[in-house]
Amino acid sequence: MVRVLHLLDVDADYQTERGAGQLARGLGAGFEVHTRRLGRGGHRNLVTAVTGLRGEPPFDVIHAWGARALTAAAVAGRGRILYSPSPTATSRAIGWARAVAGYRDVHVIAASATMRRAHAERGIPPERCHAIRPGVEFARVRRRRDRSLRARLGFGDDNCVLLAAGESTRAAAHADAVWAAGILNVSDPRYKLLLWGRGPLAGPVGRLGQRQQRRGHASYAAVAEDVLGRVEFEELLPAADIVVVPARGPVATLSVCAAMAAGVPIVAAVSYTIGELLEDRHTALLAPPGQPPQFARRVLDLRADPAIQWSIADMARTEAYEFFSLTRFLDQYRAVYRQLAAGQNVEVPEQPPGAGLRFHGRG
Prior knowledge:
Blueprint: E1 2-8, H1 14-26, E2 31-37, H2 46-55, E3 61-65, H3 67-76, E4 80-84, H4 91-101, E5 106-110, H5 113-121, E6 129-131, H6 147-152, E7 160-164, H7 174-187, E8 191-195, H8 202-214, E9 221-223, H9 224-228, E10 242-245, H10 254-262, E11 266-269, H11 272-275, E12 285-287, H12 292-303, H13 306-323, H14 326-341, H15 355-359
Parallel strand pairs: 1-2, 1-3, 3-4, 4-5, 5-6, 7-8, 7-10, 8-9, 10-11, 11-12
Helix pairs in contact: 2-3, 3-4, 7-8, 7-12, 10-13
């Protein structure tokens, strides 16, 4: 039996929460998972977290999700440490992880190759830096358009709804989506924007859309959780005609993976993290980052070409099922937990491309 402790930061993003939950529920026989939190609903601060951890029975692996959780795990000194940085970890957080890794045997499991490389370049030994991409729960993903959901959000059948992917963070640059949608809406009032309504910048981004409306534009932006209450991102996909990803830096990619699985056409800005998932005119249409007019132009290009809409959505769906399955995610973590608990070298097992991907020409 491998005993695993999940230690989560109080401000864990939804991708982190989802991943930790999937592991706690899905690892199965041979694993015993316990979850503790820093902050509300858990340890009040670092001191109580360290004291609490030292009072726990020993764990084979302490999986720290976030920089503060890593600090608590390192100071407590109980068990081997696996560290999953935030998908949007700053240079300061990466530097701190390097400092901790200087005196504790810490293995990094990042959610993207970009974040793995960032930690290796800052001095953590490459053999202790790994990547496991998030797993999509395909049962959550519905592909069929939902007219009743669109109506509840204020959208009609003739609207083209742009859904901004994921939480509103600085790197996600959802303000660029607001500006791009505003440009499109001025030229054609049928263009609308849907924001999820989560993330540290959800309020400011929503207010930006409202300010645009007060300046004389037609009402074009809606915030899903303001209208529907608590809702998961996958539940919004049936309301969308296009998913937009205007990210300028590292972002959580689970929402993009879910959009790929749903077969919703994607327009995205070019960044290192997004470039791992999407290829121009193959799984998405790509635009320069930080340029809302160019982004709006790519949306128009997509709308003008039904053939490219179908082809990129079909290829994206195929790649999502090949590379982002929950089964693959759980299998990779099972292997890592067992290796770490046994004191072995940590190697993430890779999944070879399947027949579906080779059929589409990428194998």
